[in-house]
Design a protein that fits this description.
Oligomer: heterodimer
Radius of gyration of chain B: 22 Å
Shape of chain B: elongated
Helix content of chain A: 25-40%
Radius of gyration of chain A: 25 Å
Bound molecules: flavin-adenine dinucleotide, thiamine diphosphate, magnesium ion
Number of domains of chain B: 3
Number of helices of chain A: 24
Number of domains of chain A: 3
CATH superfamily of the largest domain in chain B: ACT domain
CATH class of the largest domain in chain B: Alpha Beta
CATH class of the largest domain in chain A: Alpha Beta
Distance between the termini of chain B: 30 Å
Largest interface: A-B, 49 and 42 residues
CATH architecture of the largest domain in chain B: 2-Layer Sandwich
Amino acid sequence: MKNGDSAILNHPARLTGAEILWATLEGEGVREVFGYPGGAILPAYDALRKFPIRHILVRHEQSAVHMADAYARASGRVGVAVGTSGPGATNMVTGLATAKMDSSPIVVITGQVSSKVLGTDAFQEVDITGITLPVTKHNYLVTRAEDLAPALREAFCIAASGRPGPVLVDVTKDAQQAVAEFDFAAAAPRPARPHPMLNASPERIAQAVELLRASRRPVILAGNGILKSGAMSQVRALAERAQIPVACTLLGLGSFPASHELNLGMMGMHGEFFVNQSIQQADLLIACGMRFDDRVTGSLATYAPQAKKIHIDIDPSEIDKNVHADIALIGDLAAVLDALLPRLPSRDGSAWLKAIRAMKGAESVRDIRNMPDNGHLYAAHVMHDLWHATSGQALISTDVGQHQMWEAQYYKHETPRSLITSGGLGTMGFALPAAIGAKIACPEKEVWAIAGDGGFQMTSPELATIAQEHLDINIAIINNGYLGMVRQWQEAFYDKNYQSTPILSPDFVKLAEAYGIRAAAVRTRGEVSGAVEEARTHQGPFLINFLVEQEDSVYPMVPSGAALHEMIRRPQANPLVETASDT
Amino acid sequence: MQHTFVAYVEDKPGVLTRVASLFRRLNINIVSLTVGRSERQGASRMTIVSDALPAAGPRIMASLYKLENVIEVDDVGRFSSVSRELALIKVAATPSTRSHLFELVEVFRARVVDLATESMMIEITGTESKIEGLLQVLNESEDRVLEICRTGQMVMRRGHHTSRVLQALGDTESVVGSKAGPFPASESGPQEELSASADGEPENIPADPDFPDKNYR
Ligand SMILES: Cc1cc2nc3c(=O)[nH]c(=O)nc-3n(C[C@H](O)[C@H](O)[C@H](O)COP(=O)(O)OP(=O)(O)OC[C@H]3O[C@@H](n4cnc5c(N)ncnc54)[C@H](O)[C@@H]3O)c2cc1C
Ligand SMILES: Cc1ncc(C[n+]2csc(CCOP(=O)(O)OP(=O)(O)O)c2C)c(N)n1
Ligand SMILES: [Mg+2]
């Protein structure tokens, strides 16, 4: 059975449930899993040595799920996490909710008490299928060894198909111990039928083309669905052939090259003013795999009032949810665009592009990147210099908060799947485990975790995982001494009442060294590039503690519930922030 | 406004929870929900009446389809259909007060199914408004209603509309964009076996041997 001997997959055999579990994963192409053992999953762990699957031992089950999630986002394959019953399973709930919100395909396997004692409050029993019902795409309770392979195979299929998402498979201990016939091929799920609400008929596509033809000020809204669908080239063809500018959601960054002349950058709450202004002035929005999140639209009543909307999404429940679609094309984005592109009219977009460039001009003057080095270290500088040093080619995971927004603003992502961040749930503690999952998925890539001093401390024990697995990951802590994003809201909306947001941290350099990880602290802009270079050339993990300006804020900003064009702009006369005369 | 859906769901443990939980998540009140076996083996039929904004119909339907155990959904409220509910009503009644109740039962085409010294039980079947009508009369007269038990509505479309036919009708335009998972969509799905006659009325509905077909993706 060892080392990929596929005999087990090609010839039906009698195996224990534990063996069936791994054999099925092997058959599904799984080579790595992230997990943490315990009593109810012990039979499975006992059988693992017989299979060519690498197990990454984490320090907390939440991290295991984030790793599987990031593994999926980095590679496009299904990520797998394993945990035990009870507390192991409940620890995974945040990870599942994070993956669900951002449509990440993962399969999470939990051990469960024996079927004979289900429902008796047995030791470490918890109703995890009940608990995770709203945060999974689907879940299973498997109580018999013979049901395991079909359930797992269906779980993989469900996780990856349609709108992807997390699936949990809860396996009782007796199902792992019992013996059953294993026939991988026979356990294949039934072929899928097309969703009955798909509607991208030739007539509808013709209507969409007609809207495009009539449009003078169109904008493409590029979302995470482009990455899920693998529709990068189709979206690019749409933009280039019809000369349409492209604005990205946070999760759409990288789906369209940042340096492309048609790329405007990020839209929404912390998008640049001119990007949001373009959307507000547009007469047509073409939403490609994005769901008009409230961080994207601001107040719905005033959102893009003059624009007709074409909404292309695979999930019919997203249509008309937040923003009314004049034309909804329900289906896989790549397939829908493949049908649309041949009918695309050629347009002259130059007047609109020129108008957008004029709006942009004023903005970039006040951009913090243009500020001279005045001795202060700004997070924006760190992002910009890191982007510069890595030529925009690194795979970056971010945590949640101000640093996440600065990364999105100043690190220009050129390639798909190069930014991994928790957008929908906004889960602090995501960055470090996500970097691990991404590095396991793409060992050849340069991986950076960028985290705030607050979020980093939520999952910092995973430094031990990095050390134990010998992973070459670079870590940038943007240390501002605050739960910065919350402090910013307190500054703007709660009279600077900094209740419970100043946060004490350990000496992160010493902390890293305690795990055997090299580290350095950076206090001035002048030191940034040297430290980044050292991290990049050092063989093995490296942590940089960037001690940045403490009370800096992310601009521009749409206050929640305000209209998109009513942004709080970068202040002109704030000594901590750039002024026009600095340029 | 009221939205009425008929859903075919897999007859498995936990499916009712999933459907109920969906409405809870959408913050939509379920007015009534009836479940029972259907003409399809392995599939239960639910009639779900819910109270939501007029425009909510398509989103509720789409959300139901997101549940893996849901096989088919029909927004029946939008079509001509027959709706029935059954109620058992126990009313306080002594031999001296019975007779006008018998009259009422006659007028409403209900039935007396139990008679005791102090009470009687009425069974009534009909539309929701017919049942409401009887209850209103009972409440307005001096009678004391002791217990009410209602099934909730069951709804079926009029005419030759099995759900299989509906699917065939809906599938006449050719659409693109199915995204199956690692497993390719079957080349001859059940839809292709159907033939529609010139007037659009499908004929020749084949029995689907391996129903239910759950995975819409
Ligand atoms: C602190 C903070 C600040 C934020 N600020 C901003 C901000 O300023 N701007 C911003 O944009 N975001 C911001 N976000 C992120 C925001 O909350 C959302 O997560 C994000 O906007 C969602 O992007 P999306 O719609 O592209 O992706 P998702 O939420 O992942 O939606 C993807 C859509 O694509 C569809 N889809 C999936 N597969 C396919 C397919 N094959 N074919 C077609 N469609 C498909 C899905 O059905 C879904 O509708 C912020 C988050 C945090 C935590
Ligand atoms: C698990 C979790 N708890 C709380 C929050 C609310 N929250 C959002 S941003 C933020 C502050 C993050 O602080 P830090 O990690 O230091 O990053 P900074 O904003 O300073 O860059 C908090 C507490 C959250 N998103 N996630
Ligand atoms: Mg901070």
